[in-house]
Structure formats: structure tokens, C-alpha cells
Amino acid sequence: MPRTTTLVFAGDSITDSGRDRDDIASLGDGYVRLIAQTVDSRGETVVNKGISGNRAVDLEARWDDILAAGPDVLTVYIGVNDMWRRFDNDDPTSAEDFETTVAGLLQTARDAGVPRILLIEPFFVPVRDDQVSWLDDLNPKRDAVRRLAERFDATLVELHDAVTAAAAEHGAAAIVPDGVHPTPQGSAIIADAWLAAHLGAVVETPGKAGSA
User: Fold this and answer.
1) Can you give the residue ranges of the SGNH hydrolase-type esterase domain (predicted)?
2) Is 49 a member of any domain?
């Protein structure tokens, strides 16, 4: 019997999405679950290692546990809290520090023999006028993720423009009511983008805005 491919997802609340952290099989109710439903027939096992509120430094603190899950495909989705904490807790993370931390994680993963890495671009949709300037903090971190994808030969999952366009078309309330946490339709956009990057073809999951 061929060896099962293990897909490990590391990130913050968008990845966590309410999973039971005491149950390794729990995937939450977000994009990771949608991906698992799609790849199940391919013999791929999905592990959700997202924890709500995490920043890059929080991933760093628990990186050994994430790698212990044995990823054949490791997805890292981090960055929005590195922006958000500047504005809700006066605890900023510079783009330089963010990039340095994530680079260290990716180097450790490569050194551990992880064969494939996907980096998901963080997004934010301002839902208040005063939040528009928040993108000035996020955009350099998005640029950092792009550079890191190239540096570590990782697959980039582009997301910010797709979520922004969907929110403009359908209204933020239908996609990301607070600008960050997706509805089922928003989660489907994330899952579709990941699947397209992973499989090299467009595969749509149920639940996206405008789908049946």
C-alpha cells in the first residue's frame, strides 16, 4: 500500500477555525476542513495545527510540535495578527522582524526534510474607514511572504486580491464580516486558492459566493 501523504496546516484563527485542540483529527469548520473533504479521495491526510491569535513568533515557539506532525506538504498561513496587534494592543511587529522569523521557520522545515511548502498570502479587508491605513502595515508583510516563497522554493497561494474582490462584489459581511475571519463563502475562496496552487488546477469547493 502506498504511503499516505500528510498535509499539515500551521497558522492563526483562520486556520484554527474552532478546532478541538485535544483531538488531532479535528479540523475546525473553515478552509482546512473544505480542503480535507476534497483531497480525501487522493489518500492525503490533513492535520490542522492552527491556533487562534498566533503571530509568527508564536509559530516559532511551537514549531517543533508542528514539524513533529510529519508534514509531506506544509502550509504556513500567518501575518494578519502581526499587523492587528499594532492597532488593538500597541504591540507592533515590523515587516523585517516578521520576515526574519518566518525565514527561520522555513529554513528549519527544509533542514528537517519537508519536501513541499505552501505559503498563503495574508489578507485584510478594511470594514471601517479608519482601517484603510492598516494595509500600510500588512502590505510589506505580504511582500515578505512573496520573497520567502521565492527564496525557499515554496508555492505561493495568492489570496489578498481574491478576497478583496469578492468582498467588493458581494459585500464584506458575506465574505469577511470583520475584515479577517471568513464566512463559509470566504473559507471556500481560501480553500479554492490553496487547491489550485497545490494541484495545479482549478478545483472549486462548495460554499463560495455565487456557487450553488
Assistant:
1) 9-188
2) yes
Measured CA to CA, the distance from residue 209 to residue 189 in angstroms comes to 8
In a domain, 189, yes or no: yes
Instruction: Please indicate, yes or no, if residue 142 is contained in any of the structural domains.
Output: yes
pTM of the model: 0.93
181-187: Cβ within 8 A, 24+ apart: 181/13, 181/14, 182/14, 182/30, 182/31, 184/29, 185/209, 187/17, 187/29, 187/30, 187/31, 187/34
Q: What is the DSSP letter of 145?
A: H
- For residue 131, the enclosing domain spans 5-199
CATH code of the domain covering residue 112: 3.40.50.1110
Cell, residue 210:
455565487
